[in-house]
Structure formats: structure tokens, C-alpha cells
Design goal:
This protein has 305 residues and is α/β, with parallel strands linked by helices. The protein contains ten helices and nine strands. Helix 6 packs antiparallel against helix 7 (210-237). The protein is globular and about 45 Å long.
Amino acid sequence: MEWKGRRQSDNIEDRRGDPSMGGLGRGGGFSFPSGGGMGRRGGGLSIGTIIFLVVIYLIFKAMGIDLLQVLDGGMTTGGPGYEQNESGGQTPANDEMTAFVRTVLAETEDTWNGIFQSMGRQYEEPRLVLFSGQTQSACGFASAATGPFYCPSDHKVYLDTAFFSQLSRQFGASGDFAEAYVVAHEVGHHVQNLLGILPKFNQARQRMSEAEANKMSVRVELQADCLAGIWGKFTDQKGILEAGDLEEALNAAQQIGDDTLQKRSQGYVVPESFNHGTSEQRARWFKRGFDSGQLTACDTLSGPV
């Protein structure tokens, strides 16, 4: 993917290095599955221990001592090769990954601004939050384990900066267009939100059983894959894509299918628990959007998927 030298979006919030944390769990967001939620882990801290640590932290904070900075080695200013971000944290200067995300986001802006204009509507560009480890969203607490996700309440995409490495190492889905597909999928959820699809789904699933909500979630996620494919089509028409890029995205879609993730994590699949779609479905719907470039081709809400 020939992305270097192209326009970069300004709709980025860089929260990497932000020591603030909080929240009681993420809810209402639409995530790109990372497989981190499979199974239960033991050995966590008790509620009492967590409360005690929070109280200690607040006491020291009131005294003007930031324990997080102390534990991190007492660094309060950035050294050579680092720059201060808006939240006061430190991020690597000349970060190629940040430039890449800014460029991909700009390409989605160009695509959806044009499509919405052709429909006589104005596209509201989403903001993309880069974070490391954990952050807070209007949909609740976000962590690296949730994977990238879109929060319809604040119209923001959340992306942990380590996810692309995980995508390559853990899922075997390497390549810049595979990474671009991740961003385009979450922007697809934003498009659904603007079109009124997500609000209707959120209202409807309150009256659904868990099994019914999962089935509807699959349809919503597959549509986001198809919308990402539409973006891919317009990007290809600009001559940005290189040989093998489409295959990178299709491989990524296959590697994060519910069936593949469950087989990898637990050795068997539970179709009733699928909420993003199978590997075959995800790749097929991305390809459908890529081949057609038309919103009408992405009707996953009616008929078979």
C-alpha cells in the first residue's frame, strides 16, 4: 500500500503515555475481536486490594506525588526522540505507525465524504483515539484486551497502538493493508451510526435474548466489513494499492472470524456465541464491498449472510 506522502488526518487524539485510568467496563461499543476475551484468568487482584491501592494513590496525588511517574522511573520530561502529546504523555517522535493511521483515516474521510455528498448528506468525520494499555471512552473503560472498537456515544474509534503487532504475531495477518482494514472496519461502524443503523440495533437488542442479539451483532459486523471493502474499492481506484494488498485484508478478515478465534483459544467452536461472523463470512462480505463499491451491496440486515 503506497501510503507515504499522502494527506494525513487531523482527527486524531493521542493519549499514549496518559497515566489516567478508570471506568467500570466497556459497554455499547463495536469492537474488532482480539481473542483476548476467551476464557477466564485467575490470579487477579481482589476488590479490597484495588480499593486500597486507589486510596494510597489518591493520598500521594494530593501531596503532589504521582506514583505512576515514580514507578516509571520518575521521568517527567521527554528525552531525545520523544514528544509531548496533548494529554501530557510521551510518545515516540516521527512515529511511522501514527503517520500510517493518520493517512488511512484521511483516506476514509475522502471516501465517505464523497459518498455522503452523492447522497445529498454531509459526512461527520470521526475522531480516532490512539492509546496504550487502557483509556476511558463514552462507552466505558477501554483496554488493549478489547481490541480496536468504535463508540457510538462519542463518535470515536479507539485503537491501542500495540494491536497491529498482535495482528501480525498472534493472528498471522501481517501487512499494511491488513492494518488499514482494521481502521476501515471501525470507521464502517461510524458510517452505520450516521445512517441510523447502530441506534436502531442498540434499541432492539435491549428486547432480545443473548442468542438473538448475537445473531444481529453478526449482521452489523459483517456490514462494517462490507463498508470497509467499499473504502478499499475507492482506495484501489486511486492507484494506492499494491500487488497482494487485497489478499492481506482478506487474510486478516479470515484470521479474526469467530470460528477461527474460538478454535485457536479453546479448541472448539460455539456458533451460538458468534457475534462478528465466521472467517468465510467476514472475507466474503469485505470482498463484496470491494468488488461493488456500492452501499446497496452491503445489506446484511435482511436475507441470508
